[in-house]
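Before a colleague's protein record goes any further, I have to sign it off. My question to you is simply how this chain folds and whether the C-alpha cells agree. I do not need a full report, just your reasoning and any doubts. This is what I was given:
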Amino acid sequence: MPIPLNKKVVLPLGTILLGLLVTLMLANSRPNVSQRTMPEKIWPVNVMRAKPINIQPKISIYGEVRAAREAELRSVLGGRISDLNPIFRNGSLLKKGTQLLAIERNDYENLAIEKRADLIHAEALLNELRSELIFEKELLKNSQRQVELARRAFDRTSELARQGTESKKAIDDAESNLAQMEKDKILREQKVARLGSKIKQQTALHKKANASVATAEQALADTLIFAPFEGYVADVQVALGQLLVKGEKIGRLLSARELEVHFELPEGDYGRFTSKKKGQDQSEESILGRPLEIIWELGSEEHKYEATLTRVGPELNVDTGGVDMFASVDQKAVESGLRSGAFVEVLFPDFEYQNVFQVPIRAVADAEHVYVIREQRLVRLPVEVVGKAEENLLIRAKILSGELIVARLFENIGPGLRVKAL
C-alpha cells in the first residue's frame, strides 16, 4: 500500500529534530570545567657548594722497579773452572769483591813467570849497554886529549924542522902518531854512536817485555772472577769443572743498593711541564729532581716510599706516546725489601694551582661550561679547565664562593630551568 507524501517528509524531519534535541540536552547537562594552566616542572639536581682552593694534584702512573746498575758477568779467559763459590747461585746477595769462581791457573802462572824472566833479561842487557856507553864516553874524552897532544907534538916538530934542528923522519913519525890518535878517536865516536843505537833498541825491547809481563799478570788475575758491586745474582749458567770459552756468559748481577723506577709520563703532561709559561722556561731540567711518591702493594699491605726524578728518556715512545722517566728510589725502600721487578704506582706531583674550583668531570659540559643555581634557576657559566685531580677537574670561572654548582648534568639541561637542590 503506498505511503502518503506527508508521512515521507515528516518521518525524516522528526528523526533529525530528535537528534538535535538530544544533543542540546547533553550539552546543557555537561559540567562546567574552568580552564587551568599546568604548573612549571621543577628539576631535582645534585649540587656541590663552590669553594676556591689552592691545590697541587698528583698524576697517578704505573711503573716498574729496576736495578740502577746491572752487570752481565762473562769470562775474560778460556779454561776449566777449578773453584766455584757455593753461594754463587740465583737469588744470592753478594758483597762487592766476593770471589765467584776460579779458572785453572797453571798455564797462566807459567806464562807470567816466563814473561818476568824475559823482562829481567832485557833489563840486565839494557843496564850493561848503558854502563858500556859510560866507559866508552870516558875513553872518547881520553882519545880527544891524545889527539890534541899528538897535534901539538907534530906542530912543534915541524917548527924545529924548519929551523934545521929536527930531521924529516921525526916529522913523519909525529904526523903518523897524530893520524893514529885521530883514528882512535873516530873509532871511539863510532862505538859510542853504535851503543846509543843499541840502547834505544834495547829500551824498546825492555818496554815490550814490561808490557808482556803486565798482560800476563792481568791474564793471571783474570782467572779469578769477583763481584764488581753488591747485588743479587741471576741467570747463573756454570758448574764446577765446566770448560769455559773466552767471553762466555756466566750470570748477571743486579745492584741491591741502587734501585730506580721506570715509568712513562704521558706526552700531554710532559708538554705542560716543559712548555714556556708565564714568562718562565719550564725546561726539561726543571722537572729533574722532582720528588715522587712510590706505592707498592704487597698483598693486602700498601708500602709507600720516596723517590727522586733523575733522568728523562731521549725520545718519545711511538707506540704509547709517552716519555720514559727514571727515578732513583730512597735507600729505605731497599732496606725494607723492595726488589727489582716490582710493579708500583708512581704519584707525580703536578703544578700548584691557586684559587681554583674542584668539580666532578660530569659537572662540566663540553669542557667549557658549568651550571650554577641562582634564584632557583640554572645559569650557564663559561669555565677554563686548568688541570685534573684524580676524577675531578680544576676550573676557573666567575663563580661566587658558596654558590651551588650542578655536580651531575642530565639530559635536556639548559639555562633557565627551575631546579631543586638535593
Remarks:
- Residues 71 and 382 are 57 Å apart (CA to CA).
- The longest helix spans residues 106-163.
- Residues 278-285 have pLDDT under 50 and may be disordered.
